Amino acid sequence: MQFSSPEGEHRYADLVRVADRTIVGLDFDGTLAPIVDDPTRAHIHPDAADALIDLAPQVAAIAVITGRPARQALDLGGLEEVGDAIQGAGKELFLFGQYGNERWSSRQRRIVSPRPPRGLATFERDLPRTLRQADAADAYVEDKGLAVAVHTRRLPDPGEAFERLLPPMRALAEAHGMVVEPGRNVIEVRSPGAHKGMVVEKLAAELDARGFLFAGDDLGDLEAFEAVTELEKTGLAALRVCSASQEQSALLPLADVVVTGPSGVVGLLRQLRLDIMQSSAIG
Ligand SMILES: [Mg+2]
């Protein structure tokens, strides 16, 4: 464990003091699980499960926050078993998949997906008129549950229809609080993207946390770091941990602690547990 500044060391000590009200948030790939060539084989570090189980009784909750679908992360992490052990100790393990669009916890034991975004129904109601006005009434509309996709592939000139449709669809999407995601002869409309920062913010509020540690390794973790920094401004103890790798260094300048990959993260979790136990023995 290497503190990137004297402040980092102070922040760590502050976090230890409010450990029982602290949430430990962890990215999965590159943080708990080593990066491998085949992402379907990115299993959790062999010592990570025990480190999480041992740490859990000392903190408020542990949350794994990943871009992966929740089901995949549960399987690759063996997180249902880890959750059983943590739940047995009277604490809770959370797993947020697809950047927070899916939620699982050791108490609820099922993956909860979101309701369709709020603007989607009214967007769909207004869509036929927009298609008619753009002379694309025959475009194929695919309801994807959490999004709608308009395909121009079956129209006489798909490319031209796509170009013609994009501006009015973008305007309609924005009017309903949605965003467009253009693809190959398809315009998808969905809610503005979930991100890990939203998970950090919501979970801290839900559990009334007084501290938040987040460990990540990649660009998708930037929002979580930023959310932790926002919480810090409201008085929470905060610690940003970078699981460092050769490939990505975007988090380094923002981190309080830098460790080397998943083995370093496991080492930090173990050290944190010891420091909390020592601190409470003294206090
Ligand atoms: Mg990662």
Automatic annotation (TrEMBL):
Keyword RNA-binding: no
InterPro entries: HAD-like_sf, HAD_sf, OTSB-like, Trehalose_PPase
EC number: 3.1.3.12
Cofactor or coenzyme needed: Mg(2+)
A single MF term (Gene Ontology): trehalose-phosphatase activity
Cross-referenced SUPFAM superfamilies: HAD-like
Recorded catalytic activity of this chain's protein: alpha,alpha-trehalose 6-phosphate + H2O = alpha,alpha-trehalose + phosphate
Enzyme class: hydrolase
GO terms classed as biological process: trehalose biosynthetic process
Assigned keywords, A-Z: Hydrolase, Magnesium, Metal-binding
Pathway: Glycan biosynthesis; trehalose biosynthesis
Keyword Hydrolase on entry: yes
Job of this protein: Removes the phosphate from trehalose 6-phosphate to produce free trehalose.
Family per record: Belongs to the trehalose phosphatase family.
Protein name: Trehalose 6-phosphate phosphatase
